[in-house]
Amino acid sequence: EILKKKRKGLQQRLQQVQQQAADNELSGMGLSANLQSRLQAAQQELDNNQSSIQQLQTEIDTLNMQYELDRQRLGELLGTAAED
Length: 84
Hints:
The protein is mainly alpha-helical. It has one domain (about 1-80). It is about 85% helix and about 0% strand. The protein is built from two helices and no strands. Helix 1 runs antiparallel to helix 2.
């Protein structure tokens, strides 16, 4: 949840930098090295955030599966079916 909120902020930052780049292009100033670097950094941070979200979701799914297997095994050991 925290990473998803951070993602929104990163997307907004990327959009702001993209807008600034577009404004510079329209005014004929071109894309400065600094602005290009900021664009790349913002995109990289957004990509890293998305990768972290996916990695954490995979961990959550794995833990949920393991929990369910553990519940079933406990039910077998106790001689009862694990209730939902």
